[in-house]
Amino acid sequence: MIKGLAITPPILGRISIGRVVEKNGKRLPEKDDQFTITSQVQNKDGWILHPFDEGLRKAAIGGKLRSIPIRVLFNEPDLNLRAEYSLFDRQTGRPLCTGNGDVCRRYTASGIESLPCPSPDSCQLAKSGCKPYARLNVLIGDENEIGSFIFRTTGYNSIRSLAARLSYYKAVSGNLLACLPLELRLRGKSTTMSHRSAIYYADITVREGMTLEEAITQAKENDERRKSVGYDQVALDDAAAIGFANGAFEDSTEEVAEVVEEFFPGAVAGADPQSTTSTSKPSLMDKLDKKVSGNAEGKS
């Protein structure tokens, strides 16, 4: 296994709430009130829809895709949903720091270092644009047992709801989370901060038309069926944990420009993630390197 490269679940497509649109010569994220399922291929008009999108949309009320029948790959919630505080360089789009509120992995002049993470509210560096960022991998349909669709979000409501649901469903099912018939559902709410307008977030429930007890019964049946053919869920979870831990940052250099454009607007979309320089003004990474170098010279 190549060290430093995070090994993540194979991706067949994307699930999003909204899209990136061009306004006044700038590409900006635009929220929506429904899900969109796309392939991994883009054309001049954006991401190409996945066949699942058309099929599920036809069955949806009013043509609005607001629920998707899913399963998850792993019994461990943190493997299905990886959430962390993330900071990207606003000039280059390069990932700089990820943390969990306790420890973080950060690019410095000396390489990647593990440092204390006080959370964005108490971190001076976080003022440059650090915020929660999560990735959820789910299975749609029953044709591919490993290939998944990825849902990315920086929304507090989505992250909090998804994390709670996955943790609770694991507990009440007796650690059979990967066998439960679930549904990714879009919910709306209004708050004072949203000026009473609706904001939408992702949640997970058991499949529509099923009670929790029925879903658990089906999960037990799925678990027995899998064990009878030698399916090793524990080994799969262990392999996933090792793969995620193999890299300091999960998103690949090919993906990071798209992630920054959609979820961290203001950074240079399409910039080379490996570059630490900018043709305009010094990047955050340049400033950090200069500060570290200055401190080192002062101590010598």
From TrEMBL:
The protein here is known as Hydrolase or metal-binding protein
In the UniProt record, does the keyword Kinase occur?
no
One Pfam entry for this protein is Gp3-like
Q: What keywords does the record list, in alphabetical order?
A: Hydrolase
User: Mind telling me which InterPro entries this protein's record contains?
Assistant: Gp3-like
Chain positions covered by the region annotation Disordered: 268-300
UniProt lists compositionally biased (Basic and acidic residues) regions at 284-300
Is Hydrolase among this UniProt entry's keywords?
Answer: yes
**GO MF annotation: an example:** hydrolase activity
Which spans does this entry mark as compositional bias, Polar residues? 273-282
